[in-house]
Amino acid sequence: MVPAPAARRMAAPRQRLALGLLCMLLAASAAAGEGGHGVPRSAKRAAVASAVAGSGAGNRTAAAPATVGKRDEHAQGRKRAAAGPAAGRKRDDAGKPRRRGDRAPAPAPGGAVAPLGNTTTPAGSKLWLPALPLKTWGRYIVDQRGQRVKLRCVAWSGGQDVWMVPGGLHRQKLWKIASMITWGGFNCVRLHFSVEMVVRSVKGSAWVQQKAVAANPELYNKGPLEVLDAVIKALSDVGLMVIIDNHTSDAMWCCSGFDYNGLWYTDKWSEADWLHAWDVIARRYAWTPAVIGVGLRNEPRPTIVGGAARSPMWGAGGPGLDLALALEKAGGAVLSHRQSYLVFASGITAARDLIAARLRPLVLRAGWPHGAHVNNQLVYEAHEYFMWYGPLANAMQYEPFKLAMDASWGWVVLTNTAPVWLGEFGVQPWDVHGGWWQSMKRYIKERDLDWSYWLLDGDQGPSRNMNARDDLGLLNHSWDGWEHPEMIEELKQI
Ligand SMILES: *[C@@H]1O[C@H](CO)[C@@H](O)[C@H](O)[C@H]1NC(C)=O
Ligand SMILES: *[C@@H]1O[C@H](CO)[C@@H](O)[C@H](O)[C@H]1NC(C)=O
Ligand SMILES: *[C@@H]1O[C@H](CO)[C@@H](O)[C@H](O)[C@H]1NC(C)=O
Ligand SMILES: *[C@@H]1O[C@H](CO)[C@@H](O)[C@H](O)[C@H]1NC(C)=O
Questions:
Q1: DSSP secondary structure letters along 303-362
Q2: In angstroms, what is the span from residue 90 Cα to ligand 1's centroid?
Q3: 118 CB near ligand 2 (under 6 Å)
Q4: CB 86 within 8 A of CB 406
Q5: Is the pLDDT of residue 96 over 80?
Q6: How far is the CA of 472 from the centre of ligand 4 (A)?
Q7: What percent of the chain has pLDDT over 90?
Q8: How far is the CA of 195 from the centre of ligand 3 (A)?
Q9: Beta carbons of 305 and 258 less than 8 angstroms apart
Q10: Which of 51, 109, 128, 189 has the fewest CB atoms within 10 Å, i.e. is most exposed?
Q11: 21 lines ligand 1 (CB under 6 A)
Q12: Looking at residue 178, what is its pLDDT?
């Protein structure tokens, strides 16, 4: 889930400035220096790591979690700096694979699904769901009939947080929130969970507090996984697809360089716990077609484990640091339960960098390491935020932005290797006329990307401030209307 836009946002202006300058410096040195595709990755990694380590302290209001998950002692989020990706080669030969016959000529805006109308029934038919399950075809996600399905998702946060259930259920009926999502023109939802939620839920040591689902009495006295079941059912009933995302290990709001959750294991939750959690989730939803895929791990990034700083690497570093290897293991665990899950895999540097995947692409199997190869289910995931550019964001120019995105991960679609799902991106509604959003929007259109906006929620959730909205949240504070309808209109354009 997300990055901690809030934590980032809350950083003092001075810190943001420093961050912005850092980004600029890194981008400039990458572009001016080696340039092109020759930027030594190790150098880049080191730069990124030091940028992360050196960035200003962010802030999290109300860091102390309530009842469950007291382990949030490492309260202070850190603002994550992210290097502007190195400028790289430019390729515009995106060659859209258009096979005659089995593919819809031009997918309508909104893809094969999204009901954009004003449906009023809480439990609609499943008419809008494409022919599931989905698979990949070159750089596209397609359904069983070979029709392109463009994912236009929104993140519904909360399952990873200390209440262990998606947000808003204390304020609004589940069906109402699900309906809002379809009215917003989305066709799928990114739902989050923590390893802690799954592991404790299975052991029966985690309970959903009544106040967390106060507006939905039928959910009282359920475990977190049962609430997740109910949420997924409600979403699929209105024709929405679901992608389950492993956001954190600890149940908390995340993602900084100092929240101890940057890798796929932590001091408290081992890699085995992670794999176990995927095992549980993948088995549980193996017969729920609306669960189209899994996000194996959110924003892998430098972190601290066992008292030492560690940075995930792609295809290097051995079992404790090699993210590519870990993703293949978890992908294997998931696919052993159902080979038709889409598997979403994020790169290093908080899902901004897939450069090394060019030389070391992921290979998925149904069961790691010896299961049969599973082709056509891998989707790479990337994240991109307004806040990462500090005060320079609104001055962003399209050409350099495009070059940077293409070099980092856009190459995946340009070379027709696999689809890329922009799994998180977000902007404050009052910055939609600025350079970053205009560039982002144009890039998504030009590259025809699948995406997921961050985020739906009408408040900041239990580990931050329930009485305040998140600037990026689309719903208003009572979770039954749009806070900034113009933002919904922006999203309907892509
Ligand atoms: C974090 O924010 C709180 C409340 O806004 C403030 O009191 C505190 O000093 C801040 N801490 C840092 C490290 O900025
Ligand atoms: C709902 O949609 C129908 C047609 O699709 C339209 O006639 C009607 O005015 C709409 N109602 C509202 C409240 O937008
Ligand atoms: C989720 O990710 C965390 C790391 O952020 C990891 O520790 C945990 O095991 C993962 N859980 C699952 C079920 O993937
Ligand atoms: C949210 O929007 C709905 C629908 O427009 C409205 O009825 C409600 O009062 C709004 N809530 C808040 C807190 O603004």
A1: EEETTEEE--BSS-S-TTTBHHHHHHHHHHHHHTT-TT-EEEEE-HHHHTB-GGGGTS--
A2: 43
A3: yes
A4: no
A5: no
A6: 17
A7: 45
A8: 5
A9: no
A10: 109
A11: no
A12: 96
Residue 241 tokens, joined: 């697809």
CA nearest neighbour of 420 among 351, 488, 363, 360: 351
Answer yes or no: is the C-beta of 271 below 6 A from any ligand 4 atom: no
Query: Quick one: which atom of ligand 3 is closest to the CA of 198?
Result: 13
The amino acid sitting at 57 is: A
Which pair of tokens denotes residue 410? 């856009």
The response to whether residue 478 sits with its C-beta less than 6 Å from ligand 4 reads yes
pLDDT at 315 over 70: yes
What are the pLDDT digits (tens) for 8-52?
333 333 333 334 434 443 443 333 333 223 333 333 333 333 333
Read off the pLDDT of residues 434-467 as tens digits, 9 standing for 90 and up: 999 999 999 999 999 999 999 999 999 988 898 9
**Closest to 382 in 3D by CA, of 8, 85, 166:** 85
The Å distance, Cα 8 to ligand 1 centre, comes to 13
| pLDDT tens by residue, 209-233 | 999 999 999 999 998 889 999 999 9
Which 3 state secondary structure label does DSSP give 378?
strand
Distance in Å, CA 159 to ligand 3 centroid: 13
Task: Indicate which residue's Cα is closest to atom 10 of ligand 2.
Answer: 118
Token digits for 377?
């289910």
Which one of the ligands is nearest to 468 CA? Answer: 4
Of 391, 355, 384, 375, give the one whose Cα is nearest residue 454: 384
Q: Of ligand 1's atoms, which has the minimum distance to the CA of residue 76?
A: 13
Angle (CA) 200-202-203 rounded to 5° is 65
Measured from the Cα of 476, ligand 4's closest atom is 1
